[in-house]
Amino acid sequence: xxxxxxxxxxxxxxxxxxxxxxxxAWPCDSAKVNLLAEYRAFPxxxxxxxxxxxxxxxxxxxxxxxxxxxxxxxxxxxxRVGPSVL
Length: 86
Ligand SMILES: [Zn+2]
Known about the structure:
This protein is mainly alpha-helical and 86 residues long. The chain has 3 helices and 2 strands; from the N terminus they run E-E-H-H-H.
């Protein structure tokens, strides 16, 4: 028995930090939904994970020479949204 649902991972590509599937800035809307579901029982771990991703992104994006965008807004501010909005 196989399933194709969820096999398309919305994961980041480095060093651009865009989504490998939909090419939006990562975490894209689909990645956010997936992450909220995956870490539903462990919201603090989601923040730890995203903080680590944010610092990796900061390294990559500043290495490109440009000023980094507001990475806190992009990586962490949306995690305050409870799963009830899903
Ligand atoms: Zn995506």
